[in-house]
Amino acid sequence: MVGISRGLLMNPDMLIIDEPSMGLAPSLVKDIAAAINKLEEKISLIVADQNLTFILSIADRIYIMDGGRIKRSGTKCRESKRRNREISRVINLSDTDENSAMKLAFASKDALLEDTEAGAHRFEQEYHGCAQCALAALMDTFPQIRNPEAFRAASGLGGGVGLSTEGTCGALAGGVLAIGLFFGRELEAFGDPESKRFTAYRLAKRLQDRFAAEYGSGICAGIQQQVMGRSYPLYDPEAFKIFVQDGGHSHKCPQVVGRGARWAAEILLEELEAAGTDLEFSP
């Protein structure tokens, strides 16, 4: 904040801010973001930072650089009096240039899929909450969509929504959330002039179809019936106890969550490639 204040003393038309979130506690990062959002009403800003969540909260345009070169870029204009006061903003991956590249920290596509499945399986065994476990594994595989707020928002989706088992399987829901983080419409463009939501619909339907082909359903209770021979109203403590005794958390649901995360990763990779994204695998 002191550095920003010193820059403002010069009454500049543009201010360049380097790594403002580095080394700060989350609460202070939020304060910095609030200050920057106020500043953009008065001057133009260029912000360089590695914290994507932070950048998402402040920016209109982003340039993603690797090795000193711009790999991807995109814009989103705000419909407000600040339209000419643009600063960097992370955009939906479907907006990337045809020749864009995405580096993935895996030796191959198969290695990526195996790691995603294993991660989701492990998360479900250790932490439970199928939607969050599938989503967390996909966020680990694709750091571009890592979003703590989206992860928190998935809390109530476990066990077919609120442990009711009557709604969508949490593994399916977590995969659909990951799809939306990549290809969904944004709040700032609610009217969706580019019809991005239809890409999310199409990919979500593909994932639903995978669950239906494997388990005969995308509903939690139906999948339990297929995998465990019966369904369990998980909100009931006694039923939940029996579910655990029958292997629900040790291997039954972890297998479903692992497969669901893997299928979602496959769908994402295929769509990214179809959109012209060059997937660069490196161990």
Write up what this structure looks like.
This protein has 283 residues and is mainly alpha-helical. It has helices spanning 2-8, 26-39, 52-56, 109-126, 130-141, 148-153, 170-183, 196-215, 220-228, 237-245, 248-274; strands at 14-18, 44-48, 61-66, 69-75, 101-104, 278-281. The strands form three sheets. A two-stranded parallel ribbon has the order 1-2. The protein has a two-stranded antiparallel sheet with strand order 3-4. The chain has a two-stranded parallel ribbon with strand order 5-6. Helix 4 (109-126) packs antiparallel against helix 5, helix 4 (109-126) packs antiparallel against helix 11 and helix 5 crosses helix 11 (248-274). The model is unreliable at 76-99 (pLDDT under 50).
Largest sheet: spatial strand order: 1-2
Strand content: 5-15%
**C-alpha Rg (nearest Å):** 21 Å
Distance between the first and last residues' Cα:
38 Å
Strand and helix layout:
Blueprint: H1 2-8, E1 14-18, H2 26-39, E2 44-48, H3 52-56, E3 61-66, E4 69-75, E5 101-104, H4 109-126, H5 130-141, H6 148-153, H7 170-183, H8 196-215, H9 220-228, H10 237-245, H11 248-274, E6 278-281
Q: What does this entry show, briefly?
A:
50% of the residues lie in helices and 11% in strands.
Key terms for this structure?
mainly alpha, elongated, 6 strands, two-stranded parallel ribbon, 283 residues, 11 helices
